[in-house]
Structure prediction request, 184 residues.
Amino acid sequence: LITSFAVVSDIHVETNNPKVYEKLSDVLYGIKAGEDISTVVYTGDNVMNGQVLEDVFFYTAVASMKPAENNIVVAGNHDFGNGDGDYEQLRKKYIFDNNFYLNNKIDREYYYKVIDGCYMIVLASEHGSPDNFSISQDQLDWLEGVLKQAQAEDAPIFVLAHFPVYTIKDHDYRTLAQLLAKYD
Prediction:
């Protein structure tokens, strides 16, 4: 076994819904009770509205329960306000929360970490749209560079995103699909 990770998606922590906190706690404790799980990947919509208090509840739960040594948080449309609010402000808050609570040491919404020799690559939408995955040419170029680096090291690669590939709005979705297909 090279690595083992759990994936959690669409938690939608909301300040006025205490049942969600109970479910989140159950999920985190369940993962923590598992054997050999080195990483938990949260693939977006971790909170409902991108509000500060929702983020505090989510990140505090993850940081205090520490279900795995590594916690990778992918931003979803709800994490960035689901089309409401200032995207740039929400993006900065996402980066801050990852660094402050989880010590992920990221400087932008898309990033990668090498865990157990595996490249865990996080893609992120670069607009606050509730329906589309907005990916810039800069992010695609960055992704290709990381994929080349991982392939040169013959490392396993996992590409993580909240949105399905076919929802990309800035490029034909085949652009990303073809880029991914170039690498093993």
User: Anything to note?
Assistant: Residues 12 and 48 are 4 Å apart (CA to CA). Helices lie at 18-33, 52-65, 87-102, 137-152, 173-181. The two ends are 19 Å apart (CA to CA). The mean pLDDT is 92.
